[in-house]
């Protein structure tokens, strides 16, 4: 024990006390900071959970509205009512939720480059590959690059290990710096296209707004009653070499306000005279929408949440196929 009469020992004791006080202050400060961080994280987690609950509720409302829309006119779905892309705002405690509904079938279905129901028996569908190649070329991609990307997509999804001309199977991906294998299954999300050989970042960014991954291998179900003039490449791709984007855009701009009543009426249009679509292409044109896209953005205080979903409305009631969440409004 230090002798209080020794000045040197008294100084050492004081220094020791000051060091202990400093250490305790640092520990206390760190503990308080962590408590404050934990409190904020708990609060943020609660706010995010609340926002997600509001988004789910908005999604259910949109699904019910889609059911009403398809039931109102079983024969066809048009742009009547201004539902396509129109923001629908719903006030929620402390914020707002905004839902938008789009035609989820007016896109190129990436899974249409194959046919078959079982993942063990997915075979390349040449007409689907041709349509994807045509879409890429219509968007400005070089013909050779477009062919490679289209064949690479087919090889990525089909069940066999035999590459298409210009395509790629496992042996190609095995040579990458970070090797991987083909999926040999249907795509679930369009972002998977980035992994396909021949699809450069530039090509993906260009084609991203035009593609989707429907849970079927059907050829892209284009609803001629809801396809917008700005989406003309999606119709022109059905007849590569026969119909230009400009012609397709003009055709869509001249569509009757109440849409077409039958596909026979549509293909009999004078502006389509002389064209010879294959039977499966003619049947690819629809009057109804089977899949809808829904986006719900929620803003509650400083918390923002966005939910995106694909709704299957081919049967009643409409059902949720898949959804994803992200930040931002």
TrEMBL record:
Keyword match Protein transport: yes
Organism name: Sphingobium cyanobacteriorum
InterPro entries named among the record's database cross-references: GspK (IPR005628), GspK_central_sf (IPR038072), T2SSK_SAM-like_1st (IPR049031), T2SSK_SAM-like_2nd (IPR049179)
Stretches assigned to the T2SS protein K second SAM-like domain: 222-284
Main location: membrane
Localization per record: Cell inner membrane
Protein family per UniProt: Belongs to the GSP K family.
Superkingdom of the source species: Bacteria
Pfam family name, one: T2SSK
Full protein name: Type II secretion system protein K
SUPFAM superfamilies the record matches: GspK insert domain-like
